[in-house]
Design brief:
InterPro entries: Cro/C1-type_HTH, Lambda_DNA-bd_dom_sf. By secondary structure, the chain is mainly alpha-helical. The chain contains 5 helices and no strands. The longest helix has 11 residues, at 4-14.
Length: 69
């Protein structure tokens, strides 16, 4: 099972997005996306929900609790 940092990066790359593109879409800084992907930060619940909604996956999938999208 992938961890949440790898899932976020994989979803972003599948859609051809740069970190700055994703950051702009959900209203955070690109450095914050980078720190999440580098496992240096954990987003709050609101940010996980924004990311899950943007990628059309469940928050549980995104945080690594399930393999079901």
């Amino acid at each position: 099972m992938m961890n949440n940092h790898n899932r976020l990066r994989a979803l972003r790359l599948e859609r051809g997005l740069r970190q700055v593109d994703l950051a702009n879409k959900i209203g955070v800084s690109n450095s914050f996306i980078s720190t999440i992907e580098c496992k240096k930060a954990e987003p709050n619940l609101e940010t996980w929900e924004k990311l899950a909604n943007f990628f059309h996956v469940s928050p549980q999938y995104l945080v690594g609790w399930t393999d079901d999208k």
